[in-house]
């Protein structure tokens, strides 16, 4: 439809601007980081007295670096793709768990796995991992006081097409209906100072690339459930 066309043109324009800005930001950030190391060496023992400040500068510079990298991934995802192969999403879910383990082990979150799918999907492994990490990290962030994180994968048909449904479900803070309509918009975030608002827009772009579908259901104060569906390889 026309509306969808306008939205995707807008996204492409945002992407181009973002890529330009990301490159421009990367250079001064590298200079800051490099000089910070030099200053630390020059200060020697004195550095201990301003440790907190130096650490803050270091951390914040690193967080700029991470944001810029996310922007670049968002705008040039093709550079990150190494080609697709047939993968079982359930296997990749299991392989992705260690990458978020450090967030789980410091929390009161109980992990539940219901990995029953057997179908394979033709997908780039790194990109599927990126999708899963984005959803899992959001789910973990939504449960600062703990809760249940459920990961499920089951074979499921959609409109007569064989496929795999992946579910990432949390019992966290949830969202209002109004927020829910905006979560896939680039730069929409409620995590002031900590979020980029790019995770889910990248995620939905990646899912669309493989002809998949992504949906979210949420209830404020109760939790959120993301459904990601991919067609089975060859279907
Ligand atoms: P970010 O995490 O950097 O804010 P995302 O695009 O990943 O960016 O998410 C956008 C917003 O969607 C979040 O700021 C949050 O408000 C909401 N959101 C995403 N996942 C969840 C979740 N599991 N529970 C509650 N809110 C969520």
Automatic annotation (TrEMBL):
It comes from the Bacteria. Residues 20-234 form the Histidine kinase domain. It is found in: Cell membrane. This is histidine kinase.
């Amino acid at each position: 439809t026309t509306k969808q066309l306008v939205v995707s043109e807008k996204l492409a324009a945002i992407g181009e601007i973002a890529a330009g800005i990301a490159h421009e930001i990367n250079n001064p950030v590298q200079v800051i980081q490099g000089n910070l190391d030099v200053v630390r060496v020059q200060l020697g023992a004195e550095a201990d007295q301003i440790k907190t400040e130096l650490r803050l500068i270091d951390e914040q510079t690193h967080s700029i670096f991470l944001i810029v990298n996310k922007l670049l991934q968002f705008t040039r995802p093709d550079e990150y793709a190494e080609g697709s192969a047939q993968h079982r999403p359930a296997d990749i879910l299991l392989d992705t768990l260690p990458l978020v383990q450090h967030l789980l082990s410091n929390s009161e979150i109980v992990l539940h796995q219901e990995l029953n799918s057997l179908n394979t999907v033709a997908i780039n492994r790194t990109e599927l991992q990126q999708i899963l990490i984005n959803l899992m990290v959001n789910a973990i962030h939504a449960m600062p006081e703990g809760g249940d994180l459920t990961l499920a994968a089951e074979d499921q048909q959609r409109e007569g097409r064989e496929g795999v449904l992946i579910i990432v479900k949390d019992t966290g803070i949830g969202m209002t209906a109004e927020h829910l309509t905006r979560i896939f918009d680039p730069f929409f975030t409620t995590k002031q100072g900590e979020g980029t608002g790019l995770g889910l827009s990248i995620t939905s772009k990646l899912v669309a690339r493989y002809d998949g579908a992504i949906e979210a259901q949420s209830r404020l104060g109760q939790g959120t459930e993301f459904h990601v569906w991919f067609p089975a390889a060859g279907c």
